[in-house]
Amino acid sequence: MMYFTGQILPYIAVAVFIAGVTYRVMTWLKAPVPFQLTLFPAPNTSAGRTAALAKELLFFSSLRRGDKTLWFWAWLMHISLAMIIAGHAVGIYFLTHQFTLIGMTEAASSKMSATLGIIAGIGFIAALAMLLYRRISIPEVRRLSDPADYFDIALLLAVLLTGMMMRAPGVHVDLVSIREYLGSLIMLSPKNMQLDSLFVIHFFLINVLMIYFPFSKLIHMAGFFVNRSMLLEAEPVYPTPAGVMRDARVLKKRSVK
Amino acid sequence: MSSVNVNGKDVELDEDGFLNDPADWNNDMAAYFATQEDVTELTEDHWKMINYLREYFQKFGVAPMVRKLCKDTGFPLKEVYELFPSGPAKGACKIAGLPKPTGCV
Amino acid sequence: MIKPPMHIAKEKEVEAIGFPMVPEAELLNQAKEKLKHMKESMRSLMVMLETCTKCGNCAQQCHSYLGTQDYNNFPAARAELMRRVYKRYFTLQGKLFGSFAGAEDFDAETLTKWLTYFYQCNECRRCAVFCPFGIDTAEVTIAARHILSELGIMPRFMQGIAVNMIKTGNNMGLPAPAIIDNAEFMEDEILEETGIVVKVPIDKPNSDVLYVPSSADFFTNIDTMIGAAKMFHMLGLNWTISSAILEAANFGLLFNLDVMEEHNKRIVNEAKKFGAKLVIQGECGHGWRAAKMYTEGASGPVPFEIKHVLEVAAENIDRLPHKKLSMRVTLHDPCNYGRGGNIIEQPRKILRTIVDDFVEMTPNREENFCCGGGSGLLMDEMKDIRMQLGKKKFEQVQALGKLDYFAIPCSICKAQLPTVMEHYGNNDLKMGGLMDLVGKSLIIS
To answer: Would the CB atoms of A28 and C303 count as touching at under 8 Å?
Structure first.
């Protein structure tokens, strides 16, 4: 069981995640965009379009136009998530000493790393809790929700809580061993290691999340880009410039008669 | 689609209550439609409008444009609404046995 | 079993326009087939159905939901009517996990719900403005209506218009002699008013410009046509109208995409026939969106420019002799001009030039509310629902107090809004197109 969980499952999880997301995105991109769907007002330069996409990605600007409370919690959740993911990457690699790169001592860096991690974790959990409360308390949203919507929240909370527990006072986690183990996975020679059970559970849940991700609404991560690109597509120019054929597949008929 | 019997004759109406086949129209039909349209009595003014509409329809196959109708019959639009509460398109055209104008109107 | 709130076209009627009714026993299978084909030919349908995170931000932004308070009219819920069956047959999570993942089997009631609710969406795209992903429920509506039409299911209203379009090249069924007669009447009206001969040319050969008005401009809204004719006259354009396509409004966009293509091709062919270098679309919302955004996909590359009459007016109004009208005017932003067609500042430029008191309603521009008649919801039998759909609009206008004129630059809105205003108790407001005011402001010589 430990062999499977520690040395086989992670590879399955990454493979399914990458293949799954790729498959879904490729399925979308294989379909043509027969008619331009630009949502106006829209920028009319390439740079403008990139800036608009970045603004949407970083600040959730469209969501903010509507329910400001929803915007705040959704945005907080995603910003915290970004901090957590970045924090894991540098925190594990540098064994929490990443801030020595900006002149801190190792001890101070560890403290900073822990503090930022805890802030991000609390931010994420608080946001998730508020979003769950919203989902339950607003009648239209409650009626709209599927069991999967609640499952997603439960899974994310489980990952977060097991992660946060590793930072609880009195809990000491062997980061050096974890780093060694993760490194062995990346080097494709997985080592059978004795790791803290809290980490094992946390890591197991993350693998489950990665396998589940491409087949759930979490695919909105990719959907955001594909959809926004359609809405930001440059408006047509008339007369049609020579040699321009927006999408050769446009010629594919859409009706089954 | 429904069928209505007016003075012994069975006539087909569409779902909006308009005459399905313009050829079925006669004075009896006009009287019947008048009752449907809250018009208590078909006066000379009513008939002036109805005859104008039918003549235009025989010639051009559609209802006349509203302003032309007003100008040619001498009735300002307000008066047309007084004669035909549903208006020139939905009221007068129905009574005159024209098909219901469709599109963005 | 819910009852769709509109008259449905009968078997003979749909056959007459080339959409034979699919027998009841085959309906569900064929619907699944067509949904599959639809999603494979329309990226937007797939992405939009699969990306929704059920946040519900769209609920409070949709005039249809706010007006009817019917759960299925809130954008994400409306999309669910298709999304649930889509997930069931076309996604792994739907196939494996069924209702856990929000998937549902197609059943007899599904299609009835589609007919009922996708014909209560005005395809206004307002939800897309507020959705974090930009999910455009109008795309789902367009797909649903297309599938229904291919099964032989459509409102009688759409069928009637399609018949007229096939017979005469316009939605009202005006044959060429009537068009010519009406054009002459309008010329007489202009002559009487101004003393100047201003032509409304029909089928004039070797014209540089093809003008495609809404057919309603030849029936109820002739001031819009007269305004355009006056402006073209003052600009010295060599223009004509084609009696074969006296219709900017592309109703195919509203119920069947092949019909949409046919309409578009008609415009393109007529423009080529006259040797036009410029096609000008009249005051029609969907017509504009279709002409501007759908032409390349429908008819391929075209050798002429495509502009809207309000673009032409905004470009030229400063240098044309005009007088300032003393009136307090507000502007309705048709959905297909703003969100759908990028005609946002031009009407404002025109109004600021020709009237002395232009006031904005709130919200406006791309956040404006639909009139409630959008996507062809002008059926008499749906009047109650239409009035609910128009409620937000009424509130917007009322908030402005006394107005001399309500500028409505789109034919469907011109048909819907007077009924809405009257229904909610405002009988005094004068309403009409924007070119109508241009016509009144221009000094003709």
So the answer is: no
